[in-house]
Design goal:
The complex is a heterodimer of chains A (about 325) and B (about 240).
Chain A (H helix, E strand, L loop, with lengths): L3 H4 L2 H9 L5 H12 L4 E10 L2 E11 L4 E5 L6 H8 L7 E6 L10 H4 E4 L11 H12 L3 H10 L15 H13 L5 E5 L7 H16 L3 E6 L2 H4 L5 E6 L2 E7 H7 L3 E5 L3 H10 L3 E4 L5 E4 L3 H11 L5 E4 L1 H14 L3
Parallel strand pairs in A: 3-7, 3-8, 5-6, 6-7
Antiparallel strand pairs in A: 1-2, 1-4, 8-9, 10-12, 10-13, 11-12
Helix pairs in contact in A: 2-9, 6-7, 7-8, 12-13
Chain B lengths: L1 H12 L3 H23 L8 H8 L4 H20 L2 H7 L3 H37 L8 H29 L2 H22 L1 H4 L3 H8 L10 H25 L4
Helix pairs in contact in B: 1-6, 2-4, 2-6, 4-6, 4-7, 4-8, 6-7, 6-11, 7-8, 7-10, 7-11, 10-11
Classes of the chains: A alpha/beta (about 325), B mainly alpha (about 240).
Chain lengths: ~325, ~240
């Protein structure tokens, strides 16, 4: 079974089951409104292991309907931060709240917050379906919903097989299915792209976009910005447990002077339109345009105004990745 | 709490662990009952004391109960399912309490297997050799109730011990060392202390009257005290410790 089969119509395939409750965006907004704060609020969060400061006075916030990349090299304190956010570890100082409360105090936390910390958190001798049933049983989620999320992550064929025979990609999707059991408003995923093939990465990206477009919120960690650059709209970058940057991806892109790669069947017209807007654009040797110091929004808007169809519009990964590496090594010194 | 207990019982049913433990009890009990019931000289099986030991299968079911409890907790730490478990039930005391209840049921189930075999195979073996049953109805009732209670409580002891130790191999070795070695040695050399061990207390509630053993009611109190204090320690430690 491959997830490629269903990718032909990713959004229609995904949007249905995700929105089993049509009032999801309203719920998300109501939740935020009632507590009067962000979906996630991390304030001066600190975790000390003996002499080592794993997380050092970290603060950031997540707004509803956004996909935020929580980025930093291995050992930057991302997973420790997520553990504290999810109530698995106690902060040494500071606090992390979801919907205005510590995780353990959020009413029906398991239904409103979905999280995956490790891709391998399964008993190898238990079937994927039974794993989800044991979780669902604890919070009153019926087996019908278990089968629904199994379909959603395209694991129904393997659902009754024992997990020991699953590939890493299948385990990632089973973990995601568990996080989706409660039809949550917030999804927290630690390195979800590990072990996914390119089809899987694309499937995950489409899935997260569909999820966030319903007003739900996503926090996704990664050690590589390039891995999530096409998925996230905000970034929180940490290094050595400290915050380096919290901004929108486009602001970051503009700030580091990265470029946008754009493809179109009408390249000359597009080049003309961009230049007339004082954009610095150069033609690459593989029939694309590289637009320097611009955001995807700016380039897309200009193309739209000029009536030029676009076949690709992407922040150039390598330059952004270089900036990311620079940013995360800056604080090392 | 009821939902969490149902989840824990489902965990027990959805791996092969419980089946394996049942087969272990089955095989061990059959072997013991046949060997002892058929090979021991009749006078070695004639007395009340000997028949009590025989019909409780020497208390070995309790160790399997304890293992079922240990595995119910430590396999979660070993395979990482403790993370989703606590994400779905952030009040960890509720999880431990549910596991304690589930393991009482699992232990009772194993006890039923053991006692069922004892009073079928064991009874037939004695009858076939013409050895009369020395225990009266009340004594047999006490023995059965005591053995089943012991098997159930040892399941809970296993959960509590597993939650305290967390490391699966360490907890299993700990239970086996205690069951096969420490308690027997202490009881043999310092019976005034050893009789307060959970194994000796369990022997006491089945009606065994070995020298130095506590009275059945005192044994019940001691066994409950063991289970209660270990369970309390398990709940407190589980709530305090970070899950990595």
């Amino acid at each position: 079974m491959t997830i490629g089969d269903a990718i032909a119509e990713p959004l229609t395939g995904i949007a249905g089951p995700v929105s089993t409750r049509s009032d999801a965006p309203a719920r998300a907004r109501a939740a935020v409104g009632s507590s009067g704060s962000s979906v996630v609020q991390v304030e001066s969060l600190t975790k000390r292991f003996g002499e080592v400061l794993a997380v050092d006075n970290l603060s950031f916030a997540l707004e509803p309907g956004t996909i935020t990349g929580f980025l930093g090299p291995y050992g930057a304190g991302k997973t420790t931060t997520l553990r504290m956010l999810l109530g698995l570890a106690a902060p040494s100082a500071g606090r992390a709240t979801i919907f205005g409360k510590p995780y353990a105090e959020v009413a029906h936390a398991a239904l409103r917050i979905g999280a995956v910390l490790e891709a391998t958190d399964f008993h190898p001798g238990r079937s994927g379906r039974d794993h989800l049933r044991t979780l669902g049983r604890a919070v009153g989620v019926p087996d019908m919903r278990v089968d629904e999320v199994l379909r959603l992550v395209e694991l129904e064929d393997a659902a009754r097989r024992r997990v020991k025979g699953y590939s890493l990609g299948m385990r990632q999707r089973l973990g995601l299915a568990g996080a989706l059991l409660g039809d949550p408003e917030l999804l927290v995923l630690d390195e979800p792209a590990n072990g996914l093939d390119p089809d899987g990465v694309r499937w995950l990206r489409d899935f997260l976009h569909a999820f966030a477009s319903e007003g739900r919120t996503v926090l996704v960690s990664s050690h590589a910005l390039a891995e999530v650059a096409q998925t996230v709209d905000r970034v929180v970058i940490v290094s050595h447990g400290r915050l380096v940057v919290e901004s929108s991806l486009d602001d970051l892109t503009a700030r580091v002077g990265a470029s946008v790669i754009v493809r179109s069947p009408q390249l000359p017209q597009l080049l003309e339109a961009l230049r007339s807007e004082n954009m610095i654009a150069t033609e690459t040797n593989d029939h694309a345009l590289q637009v320097h110091g611009a955001t995807r929004e700016q380039v897309g808007d200009i193309a739209f105004a000029a009536g030029v169809p676009l076949h690709e519009l992407a922040v150039e990964g390598s330059s952004l990745e270089e900036a990311f590496l620079e940013l995360t090594s800056e604080t090392a010194s | 709490m009821i939902a969490q207990t149902r989840a824990e019982l489902l965990k027990l049913r959805t791996t092969r662990t419980m089946i394996g433990l049942m087969l272990g009890v089955f095989g061990g009990a059959v072997l013991y009952l046949l060997l002892t019931g058929l090979l021991i000289k009749p006078e070695g099986l004639a007395g009340k004391q000997e028949q009590r030991a025989f019909f409780t299968v020497e208390g070995f079911v309790e160790l399997f109960s304890a293992l079922s409890g240990v595995l119910l907790v430590t396999s979660e730490y070993r395979f990482g399912t403790i993370r989703p478990t606590f994400l779905f039930a952030p009040r960890r005391s509720k999880v431990i309490a549910a596991k304690l209840v589930a393991s009482l049921i699992a232990g009772l189930t194993l006890g039923l297997v053991g006692e069922g075999l004892a009073f079928s195979i064991g009874y037939l073996a004695l009858r076939g050799r013409g050895i009369p049953i020395a225990l009266d109805g009340a004594e047999i009732a006490q023995l059965v109730v005591g053995a089943l209670t012991g098997a159930a409580v040892w399941g809970a002891l296993g959960v509590a011990f597993g939650a305290i130790v967390r490391n699966q191999v360490g907890a299993i070795i700990g239970v086996l060392t205690w069951g096969f070695l420490v308690e027997n040695v202490v009881f043999a050399f310092v019976p005034s202390v050893g009789r307060f061990g959970p194994g000796s207390a369990t022997s006491a509630i089945t009606g065994l009257t070995t020298d130095h053993l506590l009275a059945p009611s005192a044994g019940a109190v001691v066994l409950i005290a063991w289970a209660g204090s270990l369970a309390l320690a398990a709940v407190l430690l589980t709530a305090r410790r970070d899950v990595t």
